[in-house]
Amino acid sequence: MQETFRLGHLAGIRVGVHWSVLVIFALIAFGLAQIRLPGVYPDRALWLYWAVGLVTAVVFFASLLAHELAHAIVARKNGVRVDGITLWLLGGVARLQDEAASPSAELRIAGVGPLVSLLAGLGFGVVAVAIGQTIGPGLVLEAAAWLAAINILLALFNVIPAAPLDGGRLLRAFLWWRTGDRVRATLGASTAGRTFGWTLVLLGLFLFLQGVALSGIWLAIIGFFLISAATAEGRHAEMRGALAGIPVREAMTPDPVTAPADTTIAEFLDGPLFRYRHSAFPITRDGTAPLGMVCIHQLRNIPVGERSTTTLGDIMLPRDAIVTTSPDEPLTEVLPRMESGSDQRALVLDGESVVGILTPTDISRVLTWLTTVRPLGHDYEEGRSG
Prior knowledge:
Layout: E1 5-10, E2 13-17, H1 21-40, H2 46-77, E3 82-88, E4 91-96, H3 103-134, H4 139-158, H5 166-179, H6 182-209, H7 213-243, E5 253-254, E6 259-260, H8 265-270, E7 280-284, E8 292-295, H9 296-299, H10 312-315, E9 317-318, E10 323-325, H11 331-340, E11 346-350, E12 353-358, H12 360-373, H13 380-385
Parallel strand pairs: 2-3, 6-7, 10-11
Antiparallel strand pairs: 1-2, 3-4, 5-12, 7-8, 8-9, 11-12
Helix pairs in contact: 1-2, 2-3, 2-4, 3-4, 3-5, 5-6, 6-7
C-alpha cells in the first residue's frame, strides 16, 4: 500500500497516509457526530457533536499509528529494515523490507501491535471511569468509552489466527517453530486467512439478506480484502520456496549498458543506446561507480523542447534511492527490498562496479524455468548437481 501524503517521521520511521483513509475518517466522524453521540446525549448543539466526533476520530487514528509504530520499532530492534508506515482504509500497515530471522523475532514483531492496542483500550477505559467519577456523564465520557471499546476490539480482531492479521503472523511464528519451515508456516497462515475471509463474506451476505445492509457490506469488503491479501501471501511464500538457495547472479541481466551523466536526453534518444532491449540504464561519470539510474518511463515527463538541455544526471534516480545487491546475495533476501523500492529494480554491484540489473522480469523468467524443470521446494544445489 503506497502512501498518498507524507506526514513526516516518528522515531526515525517515515509515516504517510493513503487517500482512502479519508473515507474511513469521514465515516467514523459522521457516525459519532450524527448517530452515536446524539443517540446517547440528545439536545446538544450540533457543533459539539461534530467537534467531539472529529477529535475522537483523530485520536482513534493516532492509536492506529501507535499500533503500527510498535510493529516498526520492534521490527527494527530485531534487525528488520522498515520502509515506513502507511495508514489506509482498513487501518494501517508497517512496510518491512526484510523478514524476521527466527520464529521468536516474528512472535515479538507480530505480538506487540495488538498488545499496544489492548493497552490503549485499557488506558481509555481508565480515562472514561475517571471522567465518569469527576465530570460525570457527557459527550467526552462517551468518546473515551468508544475509544476504549474500539481499541480492545481492534486488539481482539487482530489476534485472530489468520493472515494477513497479526494473529496470522503469530500463527506463522508457531508453525515455523514447530516445523522449522518458514514457507510451510506461511502457507498454513495463508490458508487460515482465506478461510476466515470467506467466513466474513458469508456472514456479511447473511446480514445483508436479513436487512442489516451496511454491516453486511462492510463485513464482505473486509472478508474479500483478507482473501486477497492471504492469497498473495501464500503465492509469495511459494515463490520464496522456489527461489530458495538461488543467488542473484543466476537471475540478473549481466553487463548492462551504462550511460554518462552529462548525456542530454536528446542525445540519449538519438544515439544507439535506445536500441538495446533495456528499460533502465545505470548512470556513471567517466566510467566510475554508478551515480544513479534512469528508466525509460522517466523520459516521457520531460517536454520535447527541454530534452536538448536536460541531462540524464538531472533526472536520474540517485544511488541512495536505488536498491543495490551483490551477485552472491540470495534472491530471497533482495526480493523484499525490491518490492518496497520505488522502481522495483536492483543494481547488482561487485565492489563499486555495475555487473548486472535485477528486475521483476528476470525473477519471472527464473520462476518459469524452475516450475518447469523441478518441483516446488526442490533444493537448488541438488537441482544443479543433477
